Amino acid sequence: MIGGLFIYNHKGEVLISRVYRDDIGRNAVDAFRVNVIHARQQVRSPVTNIARTSFFHVKRSNIWLAAVTKQNVNAAMVFEFLYKMCDVMAAYFGKISEENIKNNFVLIYELLDEILDFGYPQNSETGALKTFITQQGIKSQHQTKEEQSQITSQVTGQIGWRREGIKYRRNELFLDVLESVNLLMSPQGQVLSAHVSGRVVMKSYLSGMPECKFGMNDKIVIEKQGKGTADETSKSGKQSIAIDDCTFHQCVRLSKFDSERSISFIPPDEEFELMRYRTTKDIILPFRVIPLVREVGRTKLEVKVVIKSNFKPSLLAQKIEVRIPTPLNTSGVQVICMKGKAKYKASENAIVWKIKRMAGMKESQISAEIELLPTNDKKKWARPPISMNFEVPLAPSGLKVRYLKVFEPKLNYSDHDVIKWARYIGRSGIYETRC
Amino acid sequence: MPAVSKGDGMRGLAVFISDIRNCKSKEAEIKRINKELANIRSKFKGDRALDGYSKKKYVCKLLFIFLLGHDIDFGHMEAVNLLSSNRYTEKQIGYLFISVLVNSNSELIRLINNAIKNDLASRNPTFMGLALHCIANVGSREMAEAFAGEIPRILVAGDTMDSVKQSAALCLLRLYRTSPDLVPMGDWTSRVVHLLNDQHLGVVTAATSLITTLAQKNPEEFKTSVSLAVSRLSRIVTSASTDLQDYTYYFVPAPWLSVKLLRLLQCYPPPDPAVRGRLTECLEAILNKAQEPPKSKKVQHSNAKNAVLFEAISLVIHHDSEPNLLVRACNQLGQFLQHRETNLRYLALESMCTLASSEFSHEAVKTHIETVINALKTERDVSVRQRAVDLLYAMCDRSNAQQIVAEMLSYLETADYSIREEIVLKVAILAEKYAVDYTWYVDTILNLIRIAGDYVSEEVWYRVIQIVINRDDVQGYAAKTVFEALQASACHENLVKVGGYILGEFGNLIAGDPRSSPLTQFHLLHSKFHLCSVPTRALLLSTYIKFVNLFPEVKGTIQDVLRSDSQLKNADVELQQRAVEYLRLSTVASTDILATVLEEMPPFPERESSILAKLKKKKGPSTVTDLEEAKRERSADVNGGPEPAPASTSAVSTPSPSADLLGLGAAPPVPAGPPPSSGGLLVDVFSDSPSAAAPLAPGSEDNFARFVCKNNGVLFENQLLQIGLKSEFRQNLGRMFIFYGNKTSTQFLNFTPTLICSDDLQANILGPTKPVDPAVDGGAQVQQAVNIECVSDFTEAPVLNIQFRYGGTFQNVSVKLPITLNKFFQPTEMASQDFFQRWKQLSNPQQEVQSIFKAKHPMDTEVTKAKIIGFGSALLEEVDPNPANFVGAGIIHTRTAQIGCLLRLEPNLQAQMYRLTLRTSRETVSQRLCELLSEQF
């Protein structure tokens, strides 16, 4: 179990130090600073073992969060906890920065006391935490005994993530399918590896204790349902997707998912992440990058890159950015592009080409002349891949929300009364094409 | 960078560095550097030529980036351009960049060398200095090749400035260290020596460093430096501290130079009397100065003064010829023994160790025994305590052995774990070496086992037993003492081993006393039995069976013990076997047989103490041996007397520690190591003259005979060395590979195999050999190839003589190399008719040799056939009318002639005899072949 949790700034100064177990001494704080933050070479592994003590760290901007343990813990659990911790802090005071942490010193210690007990992670649901850890100073004088006992029963009860008695005038529901698509493509356009990792994020403003049921075009479900009618199977077979693996928010009833593969749950109030998933088959690649690199002698390089958008013309991709790496001995660059803006960024050793908007089924082109300085190293340029960033209003995995039903037996509103919104956003993860 | 003055400061560089320093993260730093690199690249690429200042600035930035740990792959050209600038700062940056960043890139090196050459040729001292520094900093082979000839010229030229001379001397030193083969020796060497007389002390200091290094390799050429160094030293020593101005360091005149001069003098033996007088004066003056009250309280003052003093003392020790000085040095060191500086105490003890081995100062060292013992007890620093132990060991002799051993023993109880084992060994050695009264020896070792049983190695207790068995006078005492020691409630296993062994042998000597009756002895030992490990239990079982012989009255008890299930059905095979056999022996054999089988051990042959070998091994053979040997020689003097010092017997390696010295029941005691009389090696500790070739190793004659019929195999083997052979012969030529395998874990030094041929043999076979590497690592094998040509026929075989140094002793091994005439045999096939025709042609009585001899081996047809083929001739089937006979034919090839050869072997199975007939065209050949072949059957 987690023995202690430290937060450092970029210089390695300790901002927060909370020790949960006796086996972690004060020197552990310094050990991490010396061996990881101040390490000579860049530390790439998120887990470091120093003197039989394991340090798990994540970095948010300039802040280091490190969980320490001497035991053989589940590393995935520790990281899940650290990410959750980041989410909780972000929910309380926004961006995680040195200044914010210093300003919310007491709050963070309060949170740490609550979400970890003797190193075991406890309820880390922001909604639930906010009911009793508040930023408005000490509130307990105003709270009645009843309220307090209500909090206790809720937090320790079966549905710890939702309190009772929530009331909204308008029952509303937002569903976001957020996906990031990763690609590695050969210069000839052959897909070397591609996968989509997606999240379904839900924002619910529902009264009472509603029971929800979520349906999507999961291949297994569709096939199971379509068993009876053969033609439906063939019709929907195209649209259904194969999900490689998925994880759910704790509110989802896993037993029901295991037996019927239906996703039913009582949602927490406000925003939460319903599920995470990954697919590798039949991925829609929103953009195709066609590179053309020609070396003219030892001192010149000509680069031409064409990008093609590959989705419905009615949709608009946004925030498109193509990053063309330049050799390390570049001494000058001339760029011509038809659309958007392109610039050579010496500090990143790359030409960065930005396009604000681009409709589907279009193509655009950039050409650059790179002058090189002859070096005495015979090393050849490694030609790193061209990478790309974008945002498109579709789900590259092909996932479709089929339904989201809400039942509230006690209160008198039905599924039809709930206003539901759904949107799809596909972003680029690591989207690279070799050149 | 001191050269960058305010007016010349590079603002761009300062801004860049402060930018980097302000970066919050590694990523930000890398971004900033990438940006800067791109900027510099575009500047260097630009068509407009850069002025010197900006070139310098950018090169400086590149250097800074490189020092931050990033790769720089351009800018070298610009740096080289800077070299040809006339401004000091630009040139300096250029040189700096080159000495940090340039690798052996061929085209650039030529340009750089050119620039350096120009600077060396310029008469500008600063430029010359920069160039010399660059050469020394790079110090590559290419540099040495280009400038090794030039620098000595600059060094000795009359018009060179002092600062340049200084740089040149140090630069040459550096080149000499990296590639000594490239620095030519010439007439400049004599002029370098005269630099010791230079006005400028800096030049003298630099020159002394150079000369010391050179003199270590070529002492003859720099011999003249001794008198110059002495006179220079005396001038420094006698000067007042203010005379030397810049070179006076905290009131000590030129300490560095003094130390270097003293080091230089340590390369040579004591000089001739005139110079020696002066040197002695100097050394005395240095020793006198040490007595003066310090001129300053600063630590630098005393450090400098002591540095000179210690170097002077090591020179005194090196010369080892002035008793007066040695004693004074010893007294001076004695004062340091109580100094409050830990380093001084350490150094004093270390120097004293070497002083103790000099005959002049040995007595003087001994006067400090109390202080050293005190240091051992009260010193806080473990390394100093270690030195104190070393010194005690070094100063020990017969007069103070008892005291020192007692002190070491008492210290052992509190000693650090790291040095315990060494102390144990030292105590064991000293106790043995200086024992007058062997009861004292036994007491000491038993005490040793009691105090530090875990650190007592096997060798130590083997040695006790050897000594007790060899000396009748202590046996009774030893038995009594171990008996008493064993009565302690908890005693170490090693003590049980010693006790078991000694009581088994000499228990009868104390059996008369009712307090140590046989039964009591047995019960005492048996009470320890269950707490011991298997080897010890095995030893105890042997003790029991010895008891059966010594005390018939306890036979029943012992048989009961042996018969018990825990012995007879023990899981350990060794114990079980012993129990079964001993039980059987005790029931079956009569008392007479028992008495013969279980007789008291005969005395062990004297040999080098195995403990000494172990101590040597622990310290590494090269470092300690000299001192150790010197000491041993002396100890032989001191001991003189009737008993031979253990070391003076010929020494062999550590005996392989056989687990049980008793030997199994009836087996006669086999000493763990080979007794020197076996003569496998002739070793003489004191004779360092390798000229005496050893007599042939026994057994090599057998081996020689074996090799007549085969070409590959092991020729010789003993505990240290294995010699393997692999050879091939074709017509009159042959090649033999000799493999020398070091079977020990220690390096052989001065390993020199030589091939000894008698004169007429030399003429007949030619064998140029390549020398082998003089050091053979432990466990390693080296190979030597010998080419052989048979010029004419010969009878003798060459002798291979091998000499090497193993752990301080010379080893000398001689074996006959199996190069025999028959190796040059070429088989010839012929039909029966041809054979007899030729046989008849060789009917001249001188051409035939016949020999009738008894078979030494079983008469097996197949084996005989194989032997004849191995001998080299063709085996001709169905030639002889009698199928039992063997017939062969072949040609012996020599350079000058080819000698046809026919042989016939007739076995007589009934009489177990052979008749061998050989006919060749030459009488000597027939004779020799007959001799060789008849040996084989």
From TrEMBL, chain A:
MF (Gene Ontology): lipid binding
Protein name as annotated: AP-2 complex subunit mu
Keywords: Cell membrane, Coated pit, Endocytosis, Lipid-binding, Membrane, Protein transport, Transport
PANTHER family assigned to the protein according to its UniProt record, in alphabetical order: AP COMPLEX SUBUNIT MU
Species of origin: Ovis ammon polii
One GO cellular component, as annotated: AP-2 adaptor complex
Ranges for domain MHD: 170-434
Compartments it resides in: Cell membrane; Membrane, Coated pit
Cross-referenced CDD domains: AP-2_Mu2_Cterm (cd09251), AP2_Mu_N (cd14836)
Family statement: Belongs to the adaptor complexes medium subunit family.
Any one of the GO BP annotations: receptor internalization
Membrane topology label: Peripheral membrane protein
Principal cellular location given in the protein's record: membrane
Binding site for a 1,2-diacyl-sn-glycero-3-phospho-(1D-myo-inositol-3,4,5-trisphosphate): 341, 343, 345, 354, 356
Presence of keyword Membrane: yes
TrEMBL record, chain B:
InterPro entries: Adaptor_Complx_Large_Subunit, AP2_complex_asu, ARM-like, ARM-type_fold, Clathrin/coatomer_adapt-like_N, Clathrin_a-adaptin_app_sub_C, Clathrin_a/b/g-adaptin_app_Ig, Clathrin_app_Ig-like_sf
Record domain Clathrin adaptor alpha/beta/gamma-adaptin appendage Ig-like subdomain: where: 705-818
Keywords per UniProt: Cell membrane, Coated pit, Endocytosis, Membrane, Protein transport, Transport
Lipid bilayer topology: Peripheral membrane protein
Annotated Low complexity bias: 646-667
GO MF entries: clathrin adaptor activity
Gene Ontology biological process terms from the UniProt entry: clathrin-dependent endocytosis; intracellular protein transport
GO cellular component: AP-2 adaptor complex
Localization of this protein: Cell membrane; Membrane, Coated pit
Matches recorded under Pfam families: Adaptin_N (PF01602), Alpha_adaptin_C (PF02296), Alpha_adaptinC2 (PF02883)
Record-listed a 1,2-diacyl-sn-glycero-3-phospho-(1D-myo-inositol-3,4,5-trisphosphate) binding positions: 11-12, 43, 53, 57-61
UniProt key word Ribonucleoprotein: no
Sequence segments annotated as region (Disordered): 612-676
Family that this chain belongs to: Belongs to the adaptor complexes large subunit family.
PANTHER family named in the record: ADAPTIN, ALPHA/GAMMA/EPSILON
Function, as annotated: Component of the adaptor protein complex 2 (AP-2). Adaptor protein complexes function in protein transport via transport vesicles in different membrane traffic pathways. Adaptor protein complexes are vesicle coat components and appear to be involved in cargo selection and vesicle formation. AP-2 is involved in clathrin-dependent endocytosis in which cargo proteins are incorporated into vesicles surrounded by clathrin (clathrin-coated vesicles, CCVs) which are destined for fusion with the early endosome.
UniProt protein name: AP-2 complex subunit alpha
Lineage, highest ranks first: Eukaryota, Metazoa, Chordata, Craniata, Vertebrata
